[in-house]
């Protein structure tokens, strides 16, 4: 029988059973007492609340609820994401895909946000999804599945950052083309602008952002201000406006595929609205009260995103007076739509200037979140040279080398701009897959530990059973 010092704790409502016969066990030998409820809020003062056991120093907690919501919204920027990728939906389903696809995708992402909010409230770690995978996967597949999820998530964030940088650089080139109609934009010019944007974001992340987290709030306010200015402007100035039939019932298929496939591929635009939804997870270890802040931010960004993107998409459709000119445009399509809706190229250019500034705030938030994911993955020895990448700079209070690695990967992605104008998606995916496999075989298979979670830090309510 168990010794007098042995204790067994089970949750309320569960049946307690033993593998060995317990015929000699008497009722009076069992002592039952309540296990006190751990206060999740008070435990946030513990610097190791995040649950990952690491010898590396932690980053100081400075992010509150408002800053976290602002940061996550800046990463997604749902209305701006819809606007900058609207050409895909217009060609692959038209208004039907844009409007009803937004509703469908929002419902799906709301379910996803509720799921990660629940997991994030229990395991608030910077690793996010790959930590959850390690905890929930079958034991024999824990390390391999966790590694695959972590590696894929890292490069998903890199691709998102590259997309933001390309869009911002394209906006700048569109402005140059508007004010200098004779100028011919070259690929090398776009490449240089792309790299300058990346260097500025790196500088801001290393030296400014951690000391002034209010920058995320400023970016959020700027985003809402541009949204309102554009929304009100195009609705009040557009003439003639598109018909109700065009906005609500028109389906356009210029893909050559069936209507069903066309609709599904057109969902890229509404899905782009919520890219980076997991940003709050990767900043859990910098939040003051992550068990509450992270879930609220994950769900809040969906609510705010839909409330801005859905009416904005409808307004854009109503403001289109010449649809053929839009889909046939060789320039920046959002600029063409705003120019039609506002009936002023200068007004559209002013909004585009503001959009370039907004793109910088988006990239800053994205680089901060993705660098924390890389930092977490390095703490679990997911990369070669992890002992260097996981270091936190004692003065800057940022994971210096993780941020540098993110910037380097973004800079390398920029060289695709100089290549021939074809779809390199299969090539990039193949390279990422090969790199992930090589890294696993050469290094991670022996060193990757997966997350080490302190389950005792979780809020617990149960009964204590003492067997004597």
TrEMBL record:
<dbReference type="Pfam" id="PF13520">
    <property type="entry name" value="AA_permease_2"/>
</dbReference>
<dbReference type="InterPro" id="IPR002293">
    <property type="entry name" value="AA/rel_permease1"/>
</dbReference>
<keyword id="KW-0472">Membrane</keyword>
<feature type="transmembrane region" description="Helical">
    <location>
        <begin position="98"/>
        <end position="123"/>
    </location>
</feature>
<feature type="transmembrane region" description="Helical">
    <location>
        <begin position="256"/>
        <end position="277"/>
    </location>
</feature>
<dbReference type="GO" id="GO:0022857">
    <property type="term" value="F:transmembrane transporter activity"/>
</dbReference>
<feature type="transmembrane region" description="Helical">
    <location>
        <begin position="297"/>
        <end position="320"/>
    </location>
</feature>
<feature type="transmembrane region" description="Helical">
    <location>
        <begin position="398"/>
        <end position="418"/>
    </location>
</feature>
<protein>
    <recommendedName>
        <fullName>Amino acid permease/ SLC12A domain-containing protein</fullName>
    </recommendedName>
</protein>
<keyword id="KW-1133">Transmembrane helix</keyword>
<keyword id="KW-0813">Transport</keyword>
<feature type="transmembrane region" description="Helical">
    <location>
        <begin position="144"/>
        <end position="167"/>
    </location>
</feature>
<feature type="transmembrane region" description="Helical">
    <location>
        <begin position="63"/>
        <end position="86"/>
    </location>
</feature>
<feature type="transmembrane region" description="Helical">
    <location>
        <begin position="347"/>
        <end position="367"/>
    </location>
</feature>
<feature type="transmembrane region" description="Helical">
    <location>
        <begin position="424"/>
        <end position="443"/>
    </location>
</feature>
<feature type="transmembrane region" description="Helical">
    <location>
        <begin position="216"/>
        <end position="236"/>
    </location>
</feature>
<dbReference type="GO" id="GO:0016020">
    <property type="term" value="C:membrane"/>
</dbReference>
<keyword id="KW-0812">Transmembrane</keyword>
<feature type="transmembrane region" description="Helical">
    <location>
        <begin position="187"/>
        <end position="209"/>
    </location>
</feature>
């Amino acid at each position: 029988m168990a010794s007098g010092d042995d204790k067994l704790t089970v949750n309320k409502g569960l049946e307690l059973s033993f593998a060995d016969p317990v015929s000699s066990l008497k009722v009076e030998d069992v002592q039952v007492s309540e296990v006190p409820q751990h206060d999740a809020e008070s435990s946030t003062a513990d610097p190791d609340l995040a649950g990952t056991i690491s010898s590396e120093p932690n980053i100081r907690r400075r992010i509150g609820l408002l800053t976290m919501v602002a940061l996550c919204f800046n990463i997604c920027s749902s209305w701006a994401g819809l606007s900058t990728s609207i050409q895909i939906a217009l060609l692959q389903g038209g208004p039907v895909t844009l409007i009803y696809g937004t509703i469908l995708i929002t419902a799906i992402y709301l379910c996803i946000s509720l799921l990660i909010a629940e997991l994030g409230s229990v395991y608030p770690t910077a690793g996010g999804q790959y930590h959850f995978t390690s905890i929930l996967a079958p034991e024999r597949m824990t390390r391999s599945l966790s590694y695959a999820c972590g590696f894929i998530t890292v490069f998903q964030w890199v691709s998102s950052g590259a997309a933001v940088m390309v869009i911002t650089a394209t906006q700048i080139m569109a402005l140059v083309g508007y004010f200098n109609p004779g100028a011919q934009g070259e690929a090398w010019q776009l490449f240089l602008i792309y790299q300058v944007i990346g260097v500025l974001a790196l500088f801001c992340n290393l030296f400014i952002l951690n000391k002034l987290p209010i920058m995320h709030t400023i970016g959020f306010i700027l985003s809402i201000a541009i949204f309102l200015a554009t929304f009100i402007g195009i609705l009040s100035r557009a003439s003639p406006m598109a018909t109700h039939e065009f906005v609500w019932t028109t389906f356009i298929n210029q893909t050559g595929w069936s209507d069903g496939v066309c609709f599904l591929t057109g969902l890229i635009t509404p899905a782009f609205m919520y890219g980076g939804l997991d940003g709050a997870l990767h900043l859990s270890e910098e939040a003051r009260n992550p068990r509450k802040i992270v879930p609220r931010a994950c769900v809040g960004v969906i609510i705010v995103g839909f409330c801005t993107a859905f009416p904005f998409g409808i307004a854009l459709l109503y403001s289109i007076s010449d649809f053929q000119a839009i889909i046939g445009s060789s320039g920046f399509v959002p600029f063409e739509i705003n120019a039609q809706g506002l009936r002023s190229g200068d007004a559209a250019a002013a909004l585009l200037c503001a959009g370039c500034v907004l793109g910088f705030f988006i990239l800053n938030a994205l680089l901060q979140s993705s660098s924390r994911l890389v930092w977490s993955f390095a703490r679990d020895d997911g990369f070669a040279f992890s002992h260097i990448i996981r270091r936190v700079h004692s003065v800057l209070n940022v994971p210096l080398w993780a941020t540098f690695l993110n910037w380097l990967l973004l800079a390398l992605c920029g060289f695709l701009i100089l290549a021939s104008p074809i779809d390199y998606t299969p090539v990039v995916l193949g390279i990422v897959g090969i790199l992930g496999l090589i890294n696993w075989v050469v290094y991670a298979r022996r060193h990757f530990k997966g997350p080490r979670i302190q389950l005792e830090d979780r809020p617990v309510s149960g009964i204590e059973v003492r067997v004597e």
